[in-house]
Design goal:
- Two copies of one chain form a homodimer.
- Chain A is elongated.
- With 363 residues, the first copy, chain A, is an alpha/beta fold.
- In chain A, strands 1, 10, 11, 12, 13, 14, 15, 16 and 17 form a nine-stranded mixed β-sheet that branches. Chain A has an eight-stranded parallel β-sheet with strand order 2-9-8-7-6-5-4-3.
- Chain A has twelve helices and 17 strands.
- The relative contact order of chain A is 0.16.
- Helices cover 29% and strands 24% of the residues of chain A.
- The interface between A and B is large, with 63 and 63 residues.
Chain lengths: 363, 363
């Protein structure tokens, strides 16, 4: 393995000690609160890190795409939830093949969508577990709580499907939260979901799983009675947005981008060899500008083009051509998704190459 | 090959007839204006499309990274320009290996940066061609026109380097242009660069190449006396931003994203299976909101999360779960960079799979 300062740039560094600490702390907190932990693997898309999460006691993994599920199933993960309203007989056939080997569930939020999968499973004499998606305020997919009973009955009665429970993602925390407020959404996702589950049971619908999660909301949601499972993703690496939201400290951030200053063309401006094709254009949430923090500096990445990151140099700081910097990105999931490989570092030494096994599996 | 309606979604469709038309028209216009065409391959990162451009008469290709140069050189392209201020002896050694087999040049905008490459080439008894980068207003990399003579003399005098000429990228056209104005930057990049070249020659510096370009500025710049080479990238596919800028018509857009409506959870909202990991978060430039146009509809993609594209449904339109739509993305280069494969379509039929050969070659 090369020394850290021999790595070519840009390189995506992952501090393995920090990852192990993040994984262990989340697993321990979930055990303490008596909820299952099903980390969202979209953050790392890496078999090695998924196995680390499983070894720490995760009940299974969450993915967003059938293609991601195929990668993790082939890699030995035996319990997967595709937290997405999967639609289409083509996807249904792939799910049918997957369900041969593992415990599998997928999301659903409409009879029309769920029916496309039900048909495939019914024709094969098999049953697919589904979780009804509830919209607790994000305004993306999912049925409103008031429509949950009708939707659960309709989807749960489709031959070929079994309603395992309900799930949600309170992603609006990334818009509404103010810095430092860990779970600053009005009524927490956990409280809303526990109430929805009770309403379904009162209506005669069996609800085995009540699954919630996002890194900022999990600390509060996992302690709510009735929540059975949480699905944080970013916690494994964290990023500038999680720091901004108060989900973590800077010391708990595992992923940085090693970059080289390639140009200092004018006073107050320096340019690194990491642009939007390395860092993504994801903004700092819930507020604040720039495209990443320069570790140990006050200077910020002000603009990105595809291969250039333009630093607005803070008063009293300076950069020189050839110097290396580390960038804490706004959104770790978006960065990982741009790369085939991460560099595992421990105590400042390069330890391993980590493949982003499920990158590009968009279907 | 599957039929178009049998493709799994999301899929990145490329209309080959439109690509061939775009490639032929640009090549013909450059021949007419007497400038060399060196398309920027960062848009497609595909050997097949690069070869198409070469066959149409391109003098060579432009790339942004040494890794991209390695892919195109291995694929048979014998004249490459890395339009980037490459820095570092590690990159220098790879350039040295590359220069064994092809005609090669790289960008430079500082003596400190260029010296890191010069040292490698000098030690090997070889010479690397460099083009000095001039900043014509973007405010990214490059020296100001007033500093060009000093910088050219300093860089050109480094043993191991030969100054082939100057280059620029007037990327501020994406910020300053109003819709319909093809080249709405004050003094055109061509005019500024021709003047810089004359100034260098008056100062005793030989300038063989004066290279400019971007899809919106090329129509004006290629006709300016003294410009020897243009480097448009997006023109091969075009996108919603190029339509917005007046660089092309909708009929000249070759790349669309085929997606499935997976949820219609509320009145006025529909969700497709293409989010920022498929479409990128690149904004519509120079102005206008949303993350892509739904082909044939007035409805727009209003927000993206990683795997969800949320459509604000226009008055009088409707979407149903399972329906397929095509999205014209804001920025074709950013979309291609997220995928391993494009689907080549001709006259509505799937014709070939196009590998994005240089994707992920960030170093």
């Amino acid at each position: 393995m090369p020394a850290l300062d021999e790595l070519e740039t840009p390189a995506i560094l992952v501090d393995i000690d920090v990852v192990e600490g993040n994984v262990a702390r989340m697993a321990e907190a979930c055990r303490r609160d008596g909820v299952r932990l099903r980390p969202h693997a979209k953050t790392h898309k890496s078999l090695a890190i998924g196995r680390l999460q499983m070894a720490a006691g995760a009940a299974g993994l969450t993915v967003a795409k059938v293609g991601e599920a195929e990668v993790f199933a082939a890699g030995g993960v035996e319990d997967l939830f595709v937290a997405y309203p999967v639609v289409g007989a083509d996807k249904g056939r792939r799910l049918l093949a997957l369900a041969e080997g593992i415990r599998l569930a997928v999301g659903a939020d409409s009879v029309e969508g769920a029916a496309t999968l039900a048909g495939v499973f019914r024709a094969a004499g098999r049953t697919l577990d589904v979780l009804l998606e509830i919209d607790v305020g994000l305004g993306r997919t999912g049925v409103a709580p008031a429509q949950a009973l009708d939707a659960a009955r309709a989807i749960g009665s489709l031959p070929g499907l079994r309603l395992r429970g309900i799930f949600t993602h309170a992603g609006h925390v990334y818009v509404t939260a103010d810095g430092g407020a860990r779970t600053a959404i009005g009524r927490s996702e956990g409280e809303v979901m526990a109430a929805v589950a009770e309403g379904l049971r009162a209506g005669g619908v069996e609800v085995e799983e009540v699954s919630v999660g996002s890194t900022p909301t999990v600390p509060r949601s996992r302690a709510v009675a009735g929540i059975t499972e949480v699905r944080p993703g970013c916690y494994v690496f964290h990023d500038a947005t999680q720091v901004n939201l108060g989900s973590c400290t800077l010391d708990e951030c595992a992923l940085t981008v090693l970059a080289t200053v390639v140009s200092v063309p004018a006073r107050g401006r320096a340019v690194i060899d990491a642009g939007s094709k390395t860092l993504s254009k994801d903004p700092l949430a819930p507020a604040g500008g720039g495209f990443g923090r320069i570790v140990g500096r006050a200077s910020r990445l002000e603009t990105l083009t595809e291969e250039h990151g333009v630093i607005r140099v803070a008063e009293g700081e300076a950069f020189r051509v050839g110097e290396r910097v580390r960038v804490l990105p706004n959104h770790c999931c978006a960065v990982v998704n741009l790369h085939d490989e991460l560099v595992g570092v421990r105590a400042g030494r390069v330890e391993e190459r980590l493949r982003v096994d499920a990158r590009g599996r968009v279907q």
